[in-house]
Each structure stands twice: as structure tokens, then as C-alpha cells.
Design brief:
Elements: H1 65-85, H2 88-95, H3 105-121, H4 123-133, H5 136-153, H6 159-186, H7 193-219, H8 225-247, H9 270-299, H10 304-332, H11 334-356, H12 360-386, H13 394-422, H14 428-453
Helix pairs in contact: 1-6, 1-7, 1-8, 2-9, 3-6, 3-13, 4-6, 4-13, 5-6, 5-8, 6-7, 6-13, 7-8, 7-10, 7-12, 9-10, 9-12, 9-13, 9-14, 10-11, 10-12, 11-12, 11-14
């Protein structure tokens, strides 16, 4: 399966120790004082922040042909890249009953966990390289890696084949696509960043809708089967990634003197640290249904075709979760939107999946709800991160956050497989575990917001 919409200097100062405006709606600005971003004493926004006017960033285009072409290019790149991520449940379900039928769910899970780990962890260098040199060569290298991986994936037969091809080569290639595609959109939009990022990341949802249907049809065709099914999908990725290579651009000039090495000092900023923890827990939880919903459906006695279709249903929900929340996140705040989506995920796990997931209506409703919530989390998280840094450093901050999150992606699916094995193939403990992770993420999103604006629950942030 298939996720990633993945700052700015203030136009007006943020001061949490001042009285709110007399306007009917309480609103707070979105970014810290950039001059204090690397000052450990000033990094906690809950402390006093200078009320002197800050020098604003140059105006953002907020639209225009070039800006929307960048969004389109990012959409195409994420269709291919995140489309693969959003389809791992199909791959796992298929190879666990064919090429690797003698291996446990936990062992097979490591293939896809390694993929997601590298897809995010490699960004720890890719982000700073993007900030310094731009997206062109990163995307070009990613195209080569991803397309080559699909072609080799079609002829894999041994466990180590899948580890090297899908886990290492495909994971590294997708990492070269994610950060440049999402960060480039942030160069062209500020006030409409949530909406633009949501549109771009919706490509991953469309990929997650198209790929399972396409692969199910190809795999079931006797003249094509697995081999040509994967190759045809690889050619589709080649066409889409070519569009990303053509249209994705950065707006800001390269930072010639910038370091390409990670900067762990940014974790001294408490809002960024707490946000990273919240995203870590959220992605840990999210990749469990992404990785296991197809296997879960088959374990409940549903057909193999339905196990493919349930993933498509989840990705259809994710599409709406990426596009629509991006629009209202620009109005109620990215952190508020992510917090609401996380609460919706808690509800999906404990109120729908746990008691009713064994029924066809129950699992369909769960797939829709968790898809909407997960799509919102994926598209709005980059916007949350962008609120905590200047735009020219966005690639570094985004990639640093997700390099930590990659650890959750690495361990999530194998831990899920171990939980299933410990319960003799029953999924109830896995569902409870997923729900608890979402509860912890919900709490940390509230803490991250409070570190910036205090415990003002209605503040727009």
C-alpha cells in the first residue's frame, strides 16, 4: 500500500503571554521566531517570544502556472512512490501464499518494514541535499532505482531477493522521491500550503486505489501473472516519475554554504521534538492496518479478491482524507487537523474494527474511516513540520523528523506479525495495540501544540 501532504517566518509576532485578540475567533500565527530556532533557551515557544516585528520571508506565489505544475509533478511522483507504499498489503498477501509460503508473517513483514524504514530514514541526508542543491538529481536517481526495483521484483523467488530488491533498492529509490516532491510544494505556497500539499499527496491515494485493482486483474490473467503484472506496473511508474522529473522544481536558490549533514540540535526545539514523537507513534500505528488489512480480511474468511478490494476502499478513503482536510487545515490549523484525525483513528480502532471487523460491513466501514484519518495524517504532517522552521530549511526538518519515524516503520509490521503469532492467528491484540498507539499519538500532538501556544485548545494552530 500504500502514505509522507509532509517554516515559515512570521508575518506578525507570536507571544503566548499576551491576551488574545478581541476577534470572535482566537487565532495564532504558525511559525516561531526564525532567529531563535537554534537557540536552546528560546526554542520552547511556550516561553517568552520576542514581540518585536520579524523580517518576513519573500512573498510566496500561492498559485500560478509554475506553482501548480510543481503540484502536478509532485502528484505524479507520489502516485508512483506512495502508491507502492500504499500497496504493500497486496504484495505481502500475495507472496505469503506463493513465493514465500513457507515463511512466517513476521519474517515476510521484515521485507516491507525494511522498505518503509529506508524510504523515510534515507531522508536524513536527502532533506539537507534538497535544501542545498534542489530536487532535480535526487528525483532522477530515484526514478532509476524505483523502476529497476519493479523490474527485478518481478523475478524474485528467494527471501533474500525480496529483501535486497524491494526492501533496499525500492526503499532507497522512494526515499529519493518523497522529500523533494513534498518540500518543493512548500516553496510555492504558504497560506494555501495545506491544500496544495493535500492535492500533491493525494497522488499516493490514487496510486493505492489503482494499483490493487490493476495488480489483481493482472495476477489473475493466466497469460500475464505475477511476472508481467509487476513489470507493467513498473512501466506505469516510469511514465509517472518522468512527469515528476520534468515538473518538480524548487523556488528558492540553492544554499551553497549549507551543510548536507544532519543537525540533531534542532531537537532542542521542544515543539519539533514533541511533534516528532507524535508522528512516530502515529506512523507506528498507521502502518499496521496498511500492512495487515488484506491479511486480516483473508483470516476472517473473505475471498482473495475482497482482500485486494478492501485495500482499494481504504485508499479511496485516504484520497478524501488528503484533499479535503488540506483545505480546512489552512483555516483551523494543521496541528488541530492532525489531532482531530488521530482521534478519529482511535474511534475507528476501538469502536469499529475491534467489535465489528469480522463482518463485511464492519471491515468496509473501518477501511473508509481509517483511510480518511490516515490520509489526513499523511498529508497534514508535512504542513505541521513546516510551521516549525523557515522554508529554506524545510527539507532538513521534514527529513530529520521522518528519519526518526522510519524506526517505527521498521519495527511496526514485524511486531504486528509477532502479536498475531502470539495470539494463534487472532487479530484482537493487534487491534488493541494499534488503538493504544493512536491514543499516545493524540496526547503528544496536544503536548506539541501546547509547547507553541500554551494550553489553549481553541487556538488556531
Amino acid at each position: 500500500m500504500a502514505v509522507g501532504k509532509m517554516a515559515e517566518t512570521l508575518q506578525a509576532p507570536l507571544a503566548t503571554d499576551t491576551a488574545p485578540s478581541s476577534s470572535a475567533q482566537e487565532k495564532c500565527d504558525h511559525s516561531p521566531d526564525v532567529s531563535k530556532l537554534h537557540d536552546p533557551e528560546a526554542a520552547t515557544l511556550g516561553k517568552s517570544v520576542s514581540t518585536e516585528p520579524l523580517q518576513p520571508e519573500p512573498p510566496f506565489p500561492e498559485g500560478g502556472l509554475q506553482a501548480w505544475l510543481v503540484v502536478f509533478g509532485a502528484w505524479a511522483g507520489l502516485f508512483a512512490g506512495l502508491g507502492i507504499t500504499n500497496t504493500i498489503a497486496v504484495f505481502q498477501s500475495y507472496i505469503s501464499t506463493h513465493q514465500l509460503a513457507d515463511y512466517s508473517e513476521s519474517s515476510i513483514g521484515w521485507i516491507f518494514s525494511l522498505y518503509t524504514f529506508l524510504a523515510f530514514f534515507c531522508g536524513i541526508y536527502i532533506g539537507p541535499i534538497f535544501d542545498k542543491y534542489g530536487p532535480r538529481w535526487l528525483i532522477a536517481t530515484g526514478v532509476v532505482c524505483v523502476v529497476a526495483a519493479q523490474m527485478l521484483f518481478s523475478i524474485c523467488t528467494e527471501y533474500w531477493h525480496f529483501i535486497l530488491v524491494f526492501g533496499v533498492l525500492n526503499g532507497t529509490g522512494c526515499s529519493l522521491l518523497f522529500t523533494p516532491c513534498l518540500a518543493s510544494v512548500g516553496h510555492f505556497f504558504r497560506e494555501r500550503r495545506g491544500f496544495a500539499t493535500g492535492l500533491a499527496s493525494a497522488g499516493g491515494s490514487i496510486g493505492g486505489i489503482v494499483a490493487p485493482l490493476m495488480l489483481n486483474s493482472l495476477f489473475s490473467n493466466p497469460s500475464l501473472g505475477w511476472d508481467w503484472g509487476i513489470r507493467i506496473y513498473g512501466f506505469l511508474c516510469l511514465g509517472l516519475l518522468s512527469l515528476a522529473l520534468i515538473f518538480v522544481r524548487s523556488r528558492l536558490p540553492p544554499k551553497e554554504n549549507a551543510s548536507i549533514h544532519p543537525d540533531p540540535k534542532i531537537f532542542k526545539q521542544k515543539p519539533f521534538l514533541y511533534t516528532t514523537i507524535a508522528v512516530f507513534l502515529m506512523e507506528f500505528a498507521l502502518f499496521i492496518p496498511i500492512g495487515y488489512i488484506s491479511s486480516y480480511a483473508r483470516a476472517q474468511g473473505f475471498s482473495e479478491s475482497f482482500s485486494f478490494y478492501i485495500l482499494t476502499i481504504m485508499n479511496a478513503g485516504s484520497f478524501f482524507g488528503r484533499v479535503l482536510p488540506g483545505w480546512y487545515a489552512d483555516r483551523i490549523g494543521a496541528f488541530n487537523t492532525n489531532t482531530i484525525a488521530t482521534f478519529l483513528s482511535i474511534t475507528a480502532c476501538f469502536v469499529i474494527w475491534l467489535p465489528f471487523g469480522h463482518t463485511k460491513p464492519g471491515i468496509i466501514v473501518f477501511a473508509i474511516v481509517i483511510g480518511i484519518a490516515g490520509g489526513t495524517n499523511i498529508s497534514i504532517t508535512p504542513v505541521c513540520i513546516s510551521r516549525l522552521c523557515p522554508t529554506e530549511s524545510y527539507g532538513r526538518y521534514y527529513a530529520t523528523c521522518f528519519s526518526v519515524v522510519s524506526i517505527a516503520c521498521l519495527i511496526g509490521i514485524p511486531i504486528g506479525g509477532s502479536i498475531i503469532g502470539a495470539c494463534d492467528g487472532d487479530y484482537w491484540a493487534l487491534i488493541v495495540f494499534t488503538g493504544i498507539l493512536y491514543v499516545l499519538s493524540f496526547v503528544m500532538f496536544l503536548v506539541a501544540k501546547s509547547a507553541s501556544v500554551g494550553w489553549r485548545l481553541l487556538a488556531v494552530y
